[in-house]
Amino acid sequence: MAALGLAALGCGGNDDGNAGGSACRAPGPDPAAYTPISGPGGPRNTFPSAPSTAPCAFLDGGEKDPDHHNGLFMIDGYLMMPWAPEWADGGISVFDFSNSCAPQRLNTVEAVAMRETHATGLSQHAGRWMAVTHLKGVSFWDLSDVTQPVFGSTIELPGVFYPDAYARVVMSLFWQAPYVYVAGADNGLYVVDATDPLQPQIVGTYNFEVPLRAGAIFAVGNLLAVSAAEGTRTALLDISDPGNPQPIPGGTFEVTDEAGTPREVYHSHLNGDKMWYARKGGGGGLIIYDIKDPSAPAYLGGNSPPNSNGGYVFVKDHRAFVGESNFGDVFDVSDPSAVRLEHTFHLQADGELTTDPGDFDTLIPLGNVVIAASDENDKTDEYPDGEVQGRASQVFALESAADTQGPSVTMVSPKSGATGVATTSRIGITLSEFVELGTVFAGSFQVLAPGCSTPIAGYYSGQEGILNFWPAEPLEPGTTYEVVIPAGGITDYLGNPTVEEFRSSFTTAE
User: Fold this and answer.
1) Is the overall model pTM greater than 0.90, yes or no?
2) Could you tell me the strand order of the sheet in which 340-345 lies?
3) Which of 487, 505, 494 is nearest to 30 (CA)?
4) Count of CB atoms situated within 10 Å of the CB of 384
């Protein structure tokens, strides 16, 4: 794992303090010089036909797994599956997923009071850590050895109360190291400083002027996006002062369909200067908004298949993946104004069913497969132990050939050419797919001062295809910085690296 402390040691200045001194002109690290990944990595299976109608494998957390599954991710070459019901007490399971149709569970540890994980934060600011939702706040887990997750600490947040399952709980979180931004439903937002994950502290809160039950939350550079849980509102906030979120004028809006009718959404996703929404009820499906100008969000397109009821949404390349409660949909979003339904996946119980089993809310792309998950294990006369017992996460083929396409940058914040940027800014990017955080370091994600080839020092964190860099020291005023994502550096879960170099620049305020 690379970059566990400072990302780089230089670009400083010359002896008189000006940028461009000899100390910062040494060549930066090679983009592929990250510490080798420990685990076996993602799958490179091939399939005789795809997409498949039946799963080739199931992911199970073991004896105590109640078959309430949600999101998962890979880190350091291993598949991580936190699982817990809404009412808490779950576990964290680790898999060798190098063969997607024969995954091997390597370990499961109990996670007392961890509740349904709508999102999982990852950071390498002070080691390798994971943040998850807790009945009373947020818990931090040490992933120094990914195969042996170790509980670190819990911070209890004021006003959080369970079993008030939607109104006063932690719904989601986003870790832009060292700060964790926490969506606390009707309690608004919490800002937690996790510089030391063993002693996290609240450093700020934010209450929305217009009611918004904070559900999904994403931080990219200086932009924080919050969408309502089972509501119609989204708020875009300025976090250039990271502990003090501020509303962006014009950035609070109602999500509507193509006819301008407000539509409730269950959860959302941020990628490529767009907000992606899993539409709840009323047809379900997908809604896309353009947020390139966060002061003027605009409807781009959508698709609402019959009998759908959205859960979560994720994006990979030209596709969006939406869990629809009864099934999971894959949409072609090459043209956001003409979203096309490409394929529908169905969970399978152990036997014949006339209806789809469980509550199919999550569909996550990983290489050339998708992992479909149910967060409810309905018990029936036919299935007294539940319709998806041992089958709450199911692996389906999406493409016949192995995935050999690397990630590409789809968004940057601050925007290219931006001026008057705060010296307290963070730099964020989104990529075309989820990436291996262990390949993100000073050689593969560079922020350069004028005349420098050695990146400035700072910290990296990542979550759901979003990467952030937090400078170790405030940026210099009146200075133009360049953001460079070299080819051959950051990789996806399968080890496919970025193919094309990305460059952007911004100028700080005088």
Assistant:
1) yes
2) 313-316, 319-323, 328-332, 340-345
3) 487
4) 8
